[in-house]
Amino acid sequence: MRKAFIILGNGFTIDFLQYYSKVDSSINEKIDVCNLFRLGDKISTPWEEKPGFLSFKNCPALWTLGARPYNTKEESNALIEEIITCANMFFDFVNEPEQKTKRLELTNSNKDKIYLRAYSELNMYLRHLFSSYNTMITDKQLEKFLNGNTSWGWIDFFKAIEKSEYDKITFVTYNYDIWLERILKILKIPFRINGFDKSCDEKVEIIKPHGSISFVPKGDISAVYSVNYNLDFEGVPIEQLEIQYDNLTRYPKGAIIPPAGDSMRLGTTAPWSQKLRNEAKNIATSIEENDEIVLCGISYWHVDRRELDELLINLNQDSNFTFVNPMPPRDLNAVLSSIFTNYVQQHSSSEIGGILNGKAI
Predict the structure, then answer these.
(1) Most buried one in 45, 270, 317, 356, CB count within 10 A?
(2) Do residues 198 and 161 lie in contact, with contact meaning Cβ atoms separated by under 8 Å?
(3) By the 8 A CB rule, do 330 and 131 touch?
(4) Would strands 215-217 and 241-243 be described as parallel, antiparallel, or unpaired?
């Protein structure tokens, strides 16, 4: 049985939006997945349906720490990393029972723990931001793009799935968005979401270790949409979550790990992530010499490295390995060159469509 193992990061979404913008240039002022604060003032709140989600009114801790729509990408990323670094420290207490008292003191005291409060706001903000972005492109518009005259290489890749000689194609994506799922649906390519769909008959499987805007609590949409400052609120098993693709801006809670969040520390507070990470690792160990591996648009931040390395060291060193990135991190490029014998680096996704058409050696 021949398999393909595809690892996707934010670069995949950036690539998709760049090609989509060639048919609809207005999308650049509607969606920005690089600077996550730039369009925050344009996003409407679900409770008032008025623009200004990123504001002192709605996200006071984020705003006080400096989150502004006019921040540069570097300023936005730096602030997010500061907030997440503090949260990562906090979650270390969760994994040490003897520190439980200190952890509760951090959240229950009257002292203003602004970075921890900002973390809660950031979780809500990012879930709503990406859910709002999802509404900016309708299924009709997406279908027109996919069937139109576009040179986006991934379309050829997707369209080659059904006729390819591969028996199993696994996507491990660290993106919250659901562009991949929507594209597969429009192209009528069956798929399953690992951890949620019980059927194992589909050729295509998707694993989302960092969560998704489509991961929501089972049951009705909450009548109250507000920031939950209880940092343990995501500590639910995957069995208490379900997949939804509609009305995602109406869900105040969900399951995502923010950028720079160290998922290796979240075994207690995000058990759903632990389960999906283990699933991805298990499938990685099954990849064989003649299988294909594709890595697209992945960063190699210090907090990401352990998780990505966990997959890389479990993959077969003699597999065919393609890394798609216009500006690959030097350290990641060095790591891949050291591990994989058949390593190829592609500057763009233009040739990605030919990978599934290749012959096994």
Answers:
(1) 270
(2) no
(3) no
(4) antiparallel
Token code pair at residue 55: 């504001």
Q: What are the phi and psi torsion angles at 151 (to 5°)? A: -100, 15
Strands 168-173 and 3-8: parallel
Q: Please give the structure tokens belonging to residue 68.
A: 């502004």
CA 346/CA 350 separation, integer angstroms: 9
Of 276, 119, 107, 262, the residue nearest 194 (C-alpha): 276
- Return averaged pLDDT per consecutive 10 residues of the chain, 361 residues in all: 91 94 94 95 87 94 96 94 82 61 58 82 92 96 92 90 87 95 95 85 91 86 68 68 90 78 58 88 93 88 76 92 88 91 89 68 39
Number of residues in the chain: 361
Q: What token pair was written down for 13?
A: 């979404």
- With CA atoms as reference, report the closest residue to 198 among 243, 251, 244: 243
Distance CA 323, CA 302 (A): 19
Per the listing, tokens 């959240």 go with 107
pTM here? 0.90
Spatial separation of the C-alpha atoms in residues 95 and 149, rounded to whole Å = 52
**Backbone φ, ψ for residue 303 (5° rounding):** -80, -20
Q: Which helix (H) or strand (E) holds 205?
A: strand 204-207
Range 3-23+138-357 classified under CATH 3.30.70 = no
CA 160-350-142 angle, to 5 degrees, is 65
* One-letter amino acid of 116: L
Provide CATH 3.40.50 ranges for the chain: 3-23+138-357
CA-CA distances (angstroms) from residue 21 to 24, 29, 145?
5, 10, 10
Number of H helices, E strands in the chain: 11, 11
CA distance 242 to 218: 6
- Specify the amino acid at residue 360: A
Among candidates 175, 337, 319, which has minimal Cα distance to 258? 175
Distance CA 2, CA 17 (A): 31
- Please name the amino acid found at residue 194: N
